[in-house]
Amino acid sequence: MSDLSRYRNIGIFAHVDAGKTTTTERILKLTGKIHKIGEVH
User: Fold this and answer.
1) Which residue of 1, 13, 20, 36 sits 20 to 30 Å from the alpha carbon of 27, by its own alpha carbon?
2) Residue closest to 10 by CA, chosen among 2, 19, 23
3) What's the CA gap between 20 and 2, in Å, rounded?
4) pLDDT tens, residue by residue, 5-33
């Protein structure tokens, strides 16, 4: 079983075209979960 203390749930909400996906991609890239910006579909 994985250590649940290492997980965090966050919510990002804003107006349309406010950069939600860009912010999410950058967070995922910085944490090593994705390797290239533009991979979120």
Assistant:
1) 1
2) 23
3) 28
4) 888 899 999 999 999 999 999 999 999 98
Q: Are 18 and 4 in contact (CB under 8 A)?
A: no
Give the pair of three-digit tokens for residue 27: 């967070």
Question: Are 24 and 12 in contact, with CB atoms under 8 Å apart?
Answer: yes
| 38 has a pLDDT exceeding 70 | yes
What is the value of pTM for the model shown?
A: 0.70
Token look-up 């912010």 returns 23
Q: How many domains does the chain have?
A: 1
Domain carrying residue 30: 1-40
